[in-house]
Amino acid sequence: MNWLDEVKWDANGLVPVIAQEQGSNDVLMFAWMNREALEKTAELGRAVYFSRSRNKLWFKGEESGHVQTVHEIRLDCDNDVVLLKVTQLGHEPGIACHTGRHSCFFSKYEKGQWTVVEPVLKDPESIYK
Question: Which compartments is it annotated to reside in (predicted)?
């Protein structure tokens, strides 16, 4: 059996993926992969996702330069969520979010509202042209 056959793909042929920074264990982002994206990620050692909005493979960092080097690929106990252990490249500290922040999870629920708790490290206007 092919290792990709063990993944429980959803009705659209996708699996949710969490990117976690190796070392700090910060959760950087959430995305989706199709079979080809997961296969390319394993082959290249670089995160490749599937963009649902563009309906195509998305090589993380192809526009921004914020590439993710993949150290480990893990599958959860139900075989329906993938975890990538990555090093975020392209800026120090690493920027994973299109808003120019380290992590996409920069809003924290506090006292009945969402509060931004992580700074913008680089203006997104200067990242994406």
Answer: Cytoplasm
Name the binding residues.
76-78, 80, 97, 104
What are the tens digits of pLDDT across the range 15-54?
999 999 999 999 999 999 999 999 999 999 999 999 999 9
Q: Is the dihedral of CA 9, 14, 18, 22 positive or negative?
A: positive
Residue 46 carries which DSSP code? B
Binding site for Zn(2+), by residue number, is: 77, 97, 104
- Going 91 to 97 to 98 to 101, the CA torsion angle's sign is negative
Annotated binding residues for Mg(2+), written as ranges, equal 76, 78, 80
Pairing mode, if any, of strands 48-51 and 56-59? Answer: antiparallel
